[in-house]
Amino acid sequence: MTRWLAAIGATSALVLTTAAPAGAAPNPRSDQWWFSAWEIQQKVWPVAKGDGVTVAVIDDGVNGKLPDFQGVIVPGTNTDTGSGDGQIGPTSSVEDSHGTGMASLIASQGTASGFVGVAPGAKIMPIITQHGGWDKAIHFAVDHGAKVINVSQGLSGECRPENQQAVAYALQRDVVVVAAAGNTGDVGNRPEEPANCSGVLAVGAVDNKKNAWTKTQRQPYVAVAAPGLLVNVLRADGQVMDRLAGTSQATALTSAVVALMRSKDPQMPAREVVQRIINTTKDAGPPGRDNMTGNGVIIPAAALSANVPKNAPNPVFAAYDRWLAQNPQAGAKPSKTKVPKSEATKKADQADRNLYILLGIGAVVVVIGGGVLLLLVRRGKKKPPPMGPGGGQSGPPPGWGGQAAPPPQGGQPVPPQGGPSGWGGPQGPPPGGQGGPQGGRPYLPPQGPGGSRPPN
Predict the structure, then answer these.
(1) Domains of the chain: total
(2) What are the backbone dihedrals phi and psi of residue 395, each rounded to the nearest 5 degrees, phi first?
(3) How far apart are CA 289 and CA 222, in angstroms?
(4) Among 36, 98, 135, 290, which one carries the catalytic annotation?
(5) Computed from CA positions of residues 431, 435, 441, 442, in that sequence, does the dihedral angle turn out positive or negative?
(6) How many whole angstroms separate alpha carbon 292 and alpha carbon 286?
(7) For a Cys-Cys bond, which of 76, 88, 132, 282 suits 456, CB 3.0-4.6 Å?
């Protein structure tokens, strides 16, 4: 399973002491070149920082105890074991730090390392899935409040039905699914799931000059591209790794942009979020749409603020709509999940029932007492009228009322420092569409310096 980023030359781990002062606005390191390329501090953070949005990181876990993730992590799970909270301990392994690295690109606070995420206001939900169980992971993420799902993993082959169904489950519940296009474009270039599942925003990788990374997958399902070459990440022991490349990082950065958009406009549907991202890209690679960079490189500021026509192309959701037309049973209206009552709620309900019973008994006593009194008064008069079997005066007790019950990468290596100052604005609606799922066989991908993992 392709799930880690490629190393360029020797991988180095840097220990930094450039943490921002407590309470200060986060400032990125100088080698986080995508901040200047995307003009994050100038044009993006004044609009949104990701507050109120949870991003599910489906990967190999996150070390949420690092100072850089203080206040960022929400409970996740391990779908391989069906238990846990999705967190891992510190490790110097490059391979085992993959999930931590992806989370750092999205929402690291820079507290100890100086490494800052693009959406530092967002929350991270870590979900451990190391054996391709994306369907379970996606369902968990959706059911527990994630609005963005990041899958920086891939397995060669067609999109399996259970994974496609899970993606549909997410889209029907207004959740954006983002996945890595793959890192073997210069070798086998096999299509990979879940990137090739219909409705997934599949991401390729570019360098800081908008050149496609040589290893990024060349597939018709690639929708957009984002920074992926020489994009450093935070390791699970708190150190920063540099000289890395991969569509994994491009995917995490794209998920961060989605979080920014969902933070700015929580009511914007997932379909429109993806439409705006696609139609505000900057062309990259060969002129027009291509299979390495898709419709172009994401421009966050434009995605947040540009005027995009409601009828602008949306090849990602067009592919999903085609799949849905062929699988109408998957389009049933999502049923409302009945949330079990908490113990406190159960006790409160029982107390209410007890109160109603007491009130009812009291009312009966009042009615009977009133009837008896009336009978005695009438008997004190001359020629009292005969009483029927019902006797006395009746009627509803006054003042009950009550309240109703609650409603039940082509590109040359570039220096890791500095970077371009802005990539420019949108280029207009892109042509073309998105291809459907592709074939292929599972294979053992090239392994990075962190060690090997068996394919699924």
Answers:
(1) 1
(2) 150, 170
(3) 10
(4) 98
(5) positive
(6) 9
(7) 132
- With 0-12 / 13-18 / 19 or more C-beta atoms within 10 angstroms meaning exposed / middle / buried, residue 148 is buried
Share of the chain above pLDDT 70, in %: 68
d(C-alpha 36, C-alpha 422), whole Å: 6
Of 31, 59, 207, 283, catalytic? 59
Predicted TM-score of the model (pTM): 0.75
pLDDT value for 452: 32
pLDDT at 61 (0 to 100): 97
User: What values do phi and psi take at 247, rounded to 5?
Assistant: -70, -15
State pLDDT tens for residues 38-83.
Answer: 999 999 999 999 999 999 999 999 999 999 999 999 999 999 999 9
Residues 6+ apart with CB under 8 A from 374: 392, 393
Evaluate whether residue 20 is within a structural domain.
yes
**Which domain covers residue 187, as residue numbers?**
6-331
CATH number of the domain to which 275 belongs: 3.40.50.200
Asked about 59 being catalytic, the answer comes back as yes
Q: Read off the DSSP letter of residue 68.
A: G
Please, what is the end-to-end C-alpha distance for the chain in angstroms?
A: 6
DSSP code string of 223-291: EEEEE-BT--EE-TTSPEE-SEE-HHHHHHHHHHHHHHHHHH-TTS-HHHHHHHHHTT-B--SSSS-BT
Residue 217 lies in a domain: yes
400/287 Cα distance (integer angstroms): 75
The closest alpha carbon to 318, from 164, 436, 218, belongs to: 436
Spell 195-213 as b/e; 16+ CB within 10 A means b: bbbbbbbbbbbbbbebbbb
pLDDT digits (tens, 9 = 90+) for 217-241: 999 999 999 999 999 999 999 999 9
* Structure tokens that stand for 58 in this block: 């489906």
Can you tell me the distance from the alpha carbon of 192 to that of 202, in angstroms, rounded to the nearest whole number? 10
Q: Scanning the structure block, which residue is given the tokens 């009322």?
A: 401
The answer to whether residue 379 is domain-embedded is no
Confidence of residue 334 (pLDDT cuts 50, 70, 90): low
Residue 248: active-site member: yes
Structural domain includes residue 80:
yes
The one catalytic residue among 248, 255, 283, 290: 248
123 vs 62: CA distance, rounded Å: 12
Radius of gyration over alpha carbons of the chain, in Å?
Answer: 29
Q: pLDDT digit string (tens) for 285-307?
A: 788 999 999 999 999 999 999 99
